[in-house]
Predict the 3D structure of the following.
Amino acid sequence: MSLRTAARDVLKKVFGESFYGELRDFYRNARYGDRSKPEGRVSMDLNHEAPEPQWKEVGASTYKWVPPSQAQEALPEVVEEPLVVPADSETDLSEEQNLPLLCEKFLVQDRFLIDYVDKSGNATRRPIRVEEVYAYDDGVFVLRAWCLLRKGYRTFVSTRIKGCSDAFSKEMVFDLLSRLRKRSLSDPGNVAQEILDGMALEIVISIYTLMHYSTGKGYEKRFVSGKKKNALVDWVLKQSKAESLLGSLDADKHSEMEELVSESIGDIKVTQSRYESCARALKRTRYVFSNNDGYEVRRQDLILFVENALEGEAARDTALTRLKQDLLDPSFRIGREVDIDKFMEEFGKVKKDSKKAEKKYKRKKKPELVSKQYRRYERGEPVRLLAIEVAQRNLQQCLDDDRLLFGKDEFEECVVREVELAFTEEELKKAGEMFRKRCGAGLSTAYCSFGLRKEKRSWFTDSRGKSWLDLKTRIGA
C-alpha cells in the first residue's frame, strides 16, 4: 500500500467518508479551479495545470479520449435523483430474446454509481450494489444489483450503462467487467459456489442415498443434518479442486467460505427426478473416450464415502446395493422416463421453499443481511435448478442414443421450453427477464457437471455460423 493511499484511509476513518469527500472536493476546486471549462496553455506558464482528460464510451467496456466539448455532447441527459421512480420494467424483453442463452454467472459484491438509459431512453444516475454478473460470449454482460433508487434488485445490461464510477472514491471505472472478475476471485461466496457446482452430481446423489432409505418420508426429509451433514461437508472440502480454490482465498476468509458450503449443503432438498438426473449423468456407460476414466474414480470415491457415512445404520446395505446398481450397471436405465405426477408434486414443494426464501430476504433491512439471504434464495431458485436437471437428463439421453454431435442452439431452446412447462403464466411473468438468465446459468452448470468445457471445444461454431455440441470432448469420460 502506498503512503498516499494509507494517508487517505486514515483521513476517511478520522473524518468519515462524506466529510472527507467534501474536504477533497474543496481542495481540488481551490487548487485547480473549475475544470469544466477547457483552457489553453499560455506559453512559458510553468504553473499551468493540464485539464483532466475527458473520455467517451465506444463499447460495452472500452473508452477513448476525445476533446471535452465532444465528450459533453456525447453524454446523455442525466436525472440525478428523479422525483418519480420508473414504474415499468427497464429492460426491453425483445432485447433479452436477442441475447445468447448460455452465460457464465459469477458472484461479486461491489458498489457503483452508474448512468443508465432504460428501454424508453430515460437516463438516470443510479447508486447500485452488484451481487451477480451474467457474462455472455459476445462481450455483453448483465448486472444483477440492488438499486438504491428503486429499493430492490434490478438488472442492468452493459450496453445501456453510459458511465460508471466507484460509489466511494467517485473515480471513473473504464473496464467494469475486468474489475468485477478480479473482485469475484476474492469473494468467498463465489468460491463456495464453484466448489458446489464442481461437485453438484456427488452432493445430490449423496444426500438422496444417505436419507431416502433411512427416513422413507419423501422430499421433505431428503436433506442432511448433524453428523451426516458434517461428514458430507468435510468430504467435499477435501476434494482436490476444493483445496485448490480454497488456496486462492486469503486465510481470514477460509472459515467464511467453509460456512457457506456447509449452509448451502444443509439447504439442499433432493427430488426424485433430480436424483435420477444426476445419477444418469454420473453412471457408467459403454462410452469411454480416454484411457483415464475420471468418472470411474468419482463413482468409486462416492460409493466409499456413502459406505463410511452409513456405518452402523440398518439401511446401509439397501442404500449401497441401489447406489451401485444406479451408478455401475450400464444396462440399468435409471430415469429414462419421468413420473410426471410425482415430479409436479415434489417440484411444487420446491417452489414453496423458494417463495419462503424470497420473503425472508425481502424482510431484511441491513444491506449485508439482504445480500446474504438473497444469495441463499438464488441457490435454491427453481428455474436454475430445473434447467440443470433437464439439461443433464437430455445430454445423457443423447449419449445413450449415440447422438454425439448436435445443434447447440436447438438443444438449449428445447431445454428452455421444457422448463417453461413446469411454470404457470403468472410465474413466468413474475420471473420476467431473469427466466432466460437463470436458464442460461443452469445450462452452464449442467455442461460443467457433465464434463463439457468451452476450452476443449465441447461447443463451437462452424464456418456457416452454426453452433454445435460435441459429447466426445467430455472430460474424464
